[in-house]
Amino acid sequence: MAVRMELLVCGGTGCQASNSNRVLEVLREGIKGANLQDEVNVLMTGCFGFCEKGPIVKVMPDNIFYVEVDEDAARKIVAEHVVKGRIVDEKIYREPETEEKLPEQSSIPFYRKQIRIALRNCGKIDPENINEYIAADGYMALAKALTEMTPEEVIDVVKRSGLRGRGGGGFPTGIKWEATRKSNSDIKYVICNADEGDPGAFMDRSILEGDPHSVLEGMAIAGYAIGAQFGYIYVRAEYPLAIHRLRVAIKQARELGLLGNNIFGTNFSFDVEIKIGAGAFICGEETALINSIEGGRGEPTVKPPYPAQVGLWKKPTNINNVETFANVCPIILNGADWFAAIGTQKSKGTKVFALAGKVNNVGLVEVPMGTTLREIIFDLGGGIKGGKKFKAVQTGGPSGGCIPSEHLDTPIDYDNLTALGSMMGSGGMIVMDEDDCMVNIAKFYLEFSCDESCGRCTACRVGNKRLLEILTKITEGNGEMEDLERLRELAETIKDSALCGLGQTSPNPVLSTMKFFYDEYLAHVKDKSCPSGVCTNLLKYYIIPEKCVGCTACARVCPVNVIHGEAKKVHVIDREGCIKCGECYRTCRFNAITRK
Ligand SMILES: Cc1cc2nc3c(=O)[nH]c(=O)nc-3n(C[C@H](O)[C@H](O)[C@H](O)COP(=O)(O)O)c2cc1C
Ligand code: SF4
Ligand code: SF4
Description:
Helices cover about 40% and strands about 15% of the residues. It has about 600 residues and is α/β, with parallel strands linked by helices.
């Protein structure tokens, strides 16, 4: 009997964490109970990206998109939708403001402006079934490259497409491939960088979990273009599901002869091995990554020579990011002009962003380069959580910069973000609201860089520690005006003298917050106050007389007895003795205590 319906269940890490495995089981049990297993398929797919609303179940061909599906809802979807053809109304996505029901994925604002190239198969196919990938034109690009194109033609298409590396630096991919091709050696390597260490970023993880073959196929095409027969995927150990799906994909590709010797009956042979990293952020830097694969310490080395000349085991090596590889097959199939028509003049195609922080729709979005920050945060992201005011967005991971509201209409591309003192990085996008203290944010990212510095060069190892000490002094209320100048000078020195990208970019959060939020630094240093009420040492607690009913609750919890007042009369805090523990603030049921 022909299959008449498919239930696609999100099997990304986010939805699995909210029990989508159990939802899948319940759907399968229900279908079996209704004796419909020959007519209805239940599939686990990769990530749909809308993690805020998971677990997600999509019913095809009806094109109905269910959100926040739990076990009960799964039973209802079978009993109502599958059996009786009635949509389960309460699990349809609703616009938060208007309550309008939007049953189709494409009509939901989160998806409306997305163009999915790297994520094309995520949420559409079963990543553990190579036949589904093949049915979605999988391995066609490799076949075309091997049987219809010379390696030089492949490189030419990638060059003309304008594809730039999605791992952070934005280096033109075709030029890198050409340089590796031109390096003279009988042995060369392809490496896929799946180390993805930026806090909050999960673009690469989702691609590997949702469409692992697209990365393998992209690597094989790169191998053909540069003249390599072997590739490594360096993936962090914290990604067990991605590693599992990669292993399944490699096994299935080998079984069908799509990896291994004489692929498609040609002279080209290519195989891939997984290398598991231990989770050090610095191992994402390409030379540190190469050292790590070789069994050495994950420390960067000075460039040049670049990996394209002297890479893994001293052989020419082409290293690209997961998302870069995921873009390669559509470029080969659809042509350079198709890809180059999307995006801005200098940044072509799309970019996947992991939208996180104080935004309503946390998740993964893929948008054309040139989409504005406002469109991503307010249209796709649904605006700021709790109706609060937008303050800044941090792009580019821990060493990116914080961009304020006056630049929300900046079209995002590599160059515009760099001009704003931030960067594209791998695509992390963390939204901050009025409650975030930008001095504290700079300190948070600097702590990350200090922890993750490999310690090889003094500028980064010692310089960042000194920066952090000054920031700590400021957030604790001991900052002096000279500290602000010291911060700036030291940050510039570290940028100029650190050996690798980590140290060269780690002062970005400090410099960008000093540029755009200098008033907050001044408030901390001059007025000894934290305008956002975050830096606890600087907080001052007040009782608002008009709101205080004299219930005495705050006076009773104050551990140093500095709140005075008679019952049913307005209370007062003696700030001299206040130790800023915040107990009174948390206790008052009348919102009569404020802190500034
Ligand atoms: C500290 C540091 C961490 C990095 N981490 C990653 C990473 O996790 N993934 C990645 O693809 N590139 C990372 N990069 C960039 C790589 O060094 C390299 O530029 C990239 O893998 C090249 O691929 P692409 O040209 O496709 O972007 C990192 C760079 C630095 C300096
Ligand atoms: S800049 Fe930092 S991470 Fe890079 S080599 Fe120097 S110490 Fe190591
Ligand atoms: S707990 Fe609130 S209402 Fe009660 S005395 Fe303190 S400030 Fe006034």
